[in-house]
Amino acid sequence: MEKTIEQKSESISDNINVIAVLHFKEMPVSIERVTIGLCNEVFDVKFKDREVIVRLSQKDVFMKGSQKHIPILKERGINVPDILAEDYTKINIPYSYQFLSKLKGKDIGPIIEYLSDKELEEIAKEIGGIIKIAKTIPASEQCGYFYDEYSETTETWVDWIKKIIDIAMERGNKTGVMDDDMHSMLLEISHDNENYFNQIKPTTYLDDICSKNVMIDGGKFSGLVDLDCFAQGDYLESIGRMKASWPRTHYGEVYTNAVMNELKLNNEQRKVVTMYALLNRISWACENGIQFNQNTTGIVDQEREKKDKEIIDMLYNEFKYNQ
């Protein structure tokens, strides 16, 4: 008989207790699931005198990326967690895992609406600076996602965009979320921007620093988390993700515009950002009803579907207006 999510969480907690004693010689006082994120099972683990993060997965190909990327970012002056302990053998528990130091603060997503314009602009300067730093990290000639030894790549950026669109269509058709309008928008993005995509020479960027993984403490940037992946391709795609996260909100516009101002993007580049915002928002909408980990279910959330499609229509109208 298949275990319920509650039973699975209890089972994971038991495993965390085992490895906590193994590495820290004491039982945790509390173990709390972090509900943001899709790839790994993440928990906040409190001991009597410290608090750490543990990440677990039955696959280690993604998680091992942090092994490689954390030192690269640290040596460039970016505040990121330390790996305190790690094991990918599955000898002690049936998961690969990492214990990491916990950065101060909370993810930007749940608190951005409470930040002042000045705070948002200062955080945006930090993120813009990180984007500039990431661009100096040597890139190969391929495009896609790079972890450690594992990568998901294509030979060109246009092929990578086609792959992203294909995945969105496959997921959306499977769950029924994809409709004729979204399908037409994806084809339009692919066709109308093919010449632009073909001109892209890959640069390194952090693709997942939009509504999560950017830690804020007391209204100030405190560091980045979840560093499994470096992306290679068009760095404007990462800013499109930011715009897609909070479209048509005051705080979203202040923050995204401040990032673009820090990077001195021109009008044409800002139009590209809107195109990537539309692409990502459609892609995210097609994740609805796909189970990635215990934070997600295999059931389509119809309220989310309705909201997603309203936002997609808004972004599409902006995209068409800018052309």
TrEMBL record:
InterPro entries reported in the protein's UniProt record: Aminoglycoside_PTrfase, Kinase-like_dom_sf
Domain of life according to the entry: Bacteria
SUPFAM superfamilies reported in the protein's UniProt record: Protein kinase-like (PK-like)
Short name of one Pfam family: APH
Domain Aminoglycoside phosphotransferase positions: 31-249
Identification of the protein by name: Aminoglycoside phosphotransferase domain-containing protein
Source organism: Candidatus Campbellbacteria bacterium RIFCSPLOWO2_02_FULL_35_11
